[in-house]
Amino acid sequence: MELKNLLFSAEAGIATITFNRPKSLNALNGDLLGELSQALDAVSADENIRVLILTGSGEKAFVAGADINELAQCNALQGKWFAAKGQNAINKLQSMDIPVIAAVNGYALGGGSEIALACDFVYASENALFGLPEITLGLVPGFGGTQRLSRLVGINMAKEMIFTGKMISAQEAKEIGLVNKVTASADLMAEVKKTATAMAAKGKVALRAAKQVINAGVQVDLATGCKMEVDAFALCMASEDAKEGTTAFLEKRKAVFKGTLMG
Ligand code: CO8
């Protein structure tokens, strides 16, 4: 995997993808979106990776949006291609089986906020700023922001952010449910890794089932969602992890999960 616009590392079951165009505040160009898609495929193919973290290079930005230099050159068809490429990568991100945390370490604007919205949850440094400023460019969000933001924080809050294009602080983002935790800048990655490590130690089958059923369940009525939960529960019961988890509790020891289904 040759990466020019991203950094990739993996250690102790935790992979980190770092957006790495600091001179452009990690803006998303077409090449970066292609590499993101490739890197996500590589993470999905690696059974040893149990949690993924996304963050940005440098101290100023997570991602300051789509690359406006590229956007400015696009006609309608090229714009459609660019949006489709971005949505392909971002949909892939949202459908990852493993938990994904966005570690937002500065500006998360436009496509940057939209990437964070497709992660399972967001931790942010206190200097982080979130916004969907596309309206200021005569555009609307094109990487799912109109849909995911309103589902997460409510329609009225999403409309205010999208209609004004204003930026909100990490603390305001936490108050509206966009961010789970705000940390000092120097502590962000340590806090994210602490949570990632806690999740990586859990059973992979149960984590995957929980993620799938939560994501699918919010799209349907409560009764259907609860039926899906019963199936997810049954799937977990068929796993070695459930046997190990319950046995370890009874034997008063720490469970060691393998993530395999019983043969
Ligand atoms: N694209 C390209 N370059 C960028 C971007 C960007 N989005 N953001 C910053 N840069 C570049 C600047 O041009 C500058 O480059 P240079 O040093 O060569 O002049 C460098 O990064 C540093 O930026 P600034 O000097 O502007 O730094 P400031 O601290 O003064 O300001 C801001 C930081 C507030 C983040 C400012 O740079 C800014 O407003 N950036 C643009 C933010 C924005 O509008 N983002 C939304 C883009 S649109 C989008 O994301 C749509 C997604 C869906 C697309 C659908 C497909 C069609």
Protein model, in words:
This protein is of the alpha/beta class. The protein has helices at 30-45, 68-73, 76-94, 111-118, 145-153, 155-164, 170-175, 188-200, 204-217, 222-237, 240-250; strands at residues 6-11, 14-19, 51-56, 61-63, 100-104, 107-109, 121-125, 129-131, 167-169, 181-183. It is 49% helix and 16% strand. α1 (30-45) links the parallel β2 and β3. It is built from 11 helices and 10 strands. It is globular, with a radius of gyration of 19 Å. The protein has 2 domains: 6-200, 2-enoyl-CoA Hydratase, Chain A, domain 1; 204-250, Lyase 2-enoyl-coa Hydratase, Chain  A, domain 2 (Orthogonal Bundle), CATH 1.10.12. A 6-stranded mixed beta sheet has the order 1-2-3-5-7-10, sandwiched between helices. Strands 4-6-8-9 form a 4-stranded mixed beta sheet. The site of octanoyl-coenzyme A has 23 residues, from α2, α3 and β6.
Question: Which helices and strands occur, and which strands form pairs?
Answer:
Elements: E1 6-11, E2 14-19, H1 30-45, E3 51-56, E4 61-63, H2 68-73, H3 76-94, E5 100-104, E6 107-109, H4 111-118, E7 121-125, E8 129-131, H5 145-153, H6 155-164, E9 167-169, H7 170-175, E10 181-183, H8 188-200, H9 204-217, H10 222-237, H11 240-250
Parallel strand pairs: 2-3, 3-5, 4-6, 5-7, 6-8, 7-10
Antiparallel strand pairs: 1-2, 8-9
The structure holds octanoyl-coenzyme A.
